[in-house]
Amino acid sequence: MSEQMRIMRSKELPEELRDRIVARHRSGQGYKKISAALKVPKSTVASIILKWKTFGTTRTLPRAGRPAKLSYRGRRALVREVKKNPKITVAELQRCSREMGESCRKSVASQQLRDCS
After folding, report:
1. Angle at the Cα of 91 (from 88 to 94), degrees rounded to 5?
2. pTM for the whole structure
3. Fold of 10-55
4. How confident is the model over 62-104, as pLDDT tens digits?
């Protein structure tokens, strides 16, 4: 399988199209007919209908992953501190975040700054 095909395979379908797939399924159409009518692979139709049966929705559900240690507000505060004082050390940034009520490790503070720039 080519690299381009792998990239295309991971694209998400619009919610409106997913709703149309479920509506056609509820009206009694089979996977093959839905697939042909909407030009969507049969496997995609099947997975959308399975997701709808399991979760009762076609919306994109939150993906698994570790929650962020710092909130959006905390990240912005760190960036503001660095803009105020560009020579601030990571240890001082860690103290600032602790004062705000969001304690984090030095590595987390430096990683957040790298991600923001």
Report:
1. 100
2. 0.53
3. Arc Repressor Mutant, subunit A (1.10.10)
4. 888 888 888 888 888 888 988 999 898 989 988 888 888 888 8
